[in-house]
Amino acid sequence: MGWRALSFRLNTAGNRLWPWLCAGSVALSLLMLGALLVLLTTKGLGHFWPAELEEVALHSGETVIGQPVREVPLPHAQGMERLYFTGNRDLTGASWRWLAVDQIAQITKPAELIRLERTPWGDFLGRLDAVESEGQRLEGQAAMEFVRQALMLPPNQRPDAQLLLEANGRVQPQPLAGITHLQTPNAMAWHQKVAAWGGRVWQFLSEGPRAANTGGGVWPAIFGTLLMVILMSVIVTPFGVLAAIYLNEIAHQNRLTHLVRIGVRNLAGVPSIVYGVFGLGVFVYGIGGSIDSWFFEDELPSPTFGTGGLLWASLTLALLTLPVVIVATEEGLARIPDAQREGAVALGATRLEMLTRIVLPMAMPAMLTGVILAVARAAGEVAPLMLVGVAKLAPQMPLDGEFPYLHLERKFMHLGYHLFDTAFHGEDVQAAIPLVFATALLLVLIVLVLNLTAIFLRHYLRRQRGNEC
Q: Residue 399 class from Cβ within 10 Å (0-12 exposed, 13-18 middle, 19+ buried)?
């Protein structure tokens, strides 16, 4: 009796503990997701806020103009050291500078300090002394207004002008044509900063990259990612759904179909770079090389389809996500009661009518879930794309106004690869870190929206069909 009572108590305690463990795991997962989104949001979107500039006077008599970034302790507890973004790479050869806090004599924030985004050489931090244009010289507020009005014009309509910029006691000329944006953050009110922040976020989403992907926007990468995902979905959906229908509804359930199911599930665990190697060897060099020799012989040895492009990247990711669609669709088909099939056949429906009018509509939530989960996975893949078509900077978009409008042979940009390239191959890694966070936030939001779409579609179709699959 003692052992039975102890076993009963342990089982009762376990039954009470498991719900709490499951709930705690869900809560921890949500907290981790929330922490990730908060980190990416603060680090990424905070980069576009017009931060105030400081004019730092050192005990040595030197003056440094910059934006404080972070502060860290010096080794062996010798005080603190502060990192400043100083820009002006054409003057000093570096855009960043560490200053010991105990070397700082005074910090001021003059309202006339400006921040210019320009190409090349990156940002300029300092003062605008004057503007020379068509034999006229403008100074002070008149010069500032002239530059603001000129930057609102299209680049080909801007006047030919020279800006005289001053930083750390040095004056240098700067052509107006090389400037993309002007800010006076110390003189901006709160509502002006909000408007400027929104404008910079919009530029990030709508413009192309510049300065080796450490500046500008990510619109070509967004467009390339969405176009590739759409094309991949068009390819993978019919193959995945038809394969699942054959395995669950048509094929005899024997050892062979059991082995096929095992193989499909194992394909879902193959590393993605292996699919990239397969796509490179079969799609690019094999099929693409044959297409070039048959239809584009005049262009050889310069390849047309025998190199990476949008088509081969979409086919590779379709192959990568095919097991996801097959498994999700087959699980949905398996949940449909046999009584539904038998009732349709008993009422005189053919097998094709039973599949198209009864089984497939009831399995639609599972099909859509599998497709959108495949889309979510494909949107974040990078490794296979590096071998089959993605580019650091694509000079031409795959979709344009020239016949045949959709150019499947062209290379394209992708958010995941843009994130990788910006983080590890930029000229200024420190300057690229905020853009890495912003791009990562954008990619996470796209994947999150796709997964939420799958959940809502599944819930909607369940209610419409009254199906508990």
A: middle
The two three-digit tokens of residue 373, written as one number: 């989960």
Question: pTM score > 0.85 for this model?
Answer: no
3-class DSSP state of 413: coil
- Neighbouring-strand partners of residue 97: 84
**Measured distance CA(98)–CA(84) in Å, rounded:** 6
Residue 428 in contact with residue 122, Cβ under 8 Å? Answer: yes
217: nearest Cα among 226, 207, 229, 232: 207
* Among candidate residues 128, 157, 160, the one with its CA nearest the CA of residue 144: 128
Contact assessment for residue 85 and residue 99, using Cβ atoms and an 8 Å cutoff: no
For 108, 398, 404, the CA distances from 401, given in Å and listed in that order, are: 53, 10, 8
- Placement of tokens 């976020």 in the chain: 201
Helices within 46-156 (DSSP H only): 89-92, 140-151
d(CA 152, CA 145): 11
Quickly list H helices, 139-254. 140-151, 190-206, 219-245
Pairing verdict, β 63-73 and 179-183: unpaired
Question: Which residues lie closer than 8 Å to 279 by C-beta, 6 or more apart?
Answer: 312, 313, 315, 316, 319, 384, 387, 388
Structure tokens at 82: 């502060």
- CA distances, 452 to each of 299, 447, 459 (Å): 46, 9, 11
pLDDT tens digit at each of 469 positions of the chain: 455 665 656 566 556 677 778 888 889 988 998 898 888 888 888 888 899 999 999 988 889 999 998 888 887 767 889 999 988 888 887 888 999 888 899 999 999 999 998 877 888 999 999 988 888 888 888 888 888 888 888 888 888 888 888 887 788 888 888 888 889 999 999 999 999 999 889 988 888 887 666 677 888 888 888 889 889 989 998 999 999 998 888 888 888 888 988 888 888 888 889 999 999 999 999 998 888 888 888 877 788 888 888 999 999 999 999 999 999 888 888 888 888 888 888 888 888 888 888 888 888 888 888 888 888 888 888 889 888 988 887 777 787 777 878 888 888 888 888 888 887 776 677 777 888 888 888 888 888 887 777 778 777 777 776 544 4
306: three-class secondary structure by DSSP:
coil
Q: Closest Cα partner for 414 from 384, 372, 448?
A: 384
H/E stretch holding 170 reads strand 170-175
Rounded Cα gap, residues 428 and 423, in angstroms? 9
Q: Which of 429, 304, 320, 454 is nearest to 382 (CA)?
A: 320
User: How are the residues of the chain apportioned to helix, strand and coil, as percentages rounded to the nearest 5?
Assistant: 60, 15, 25
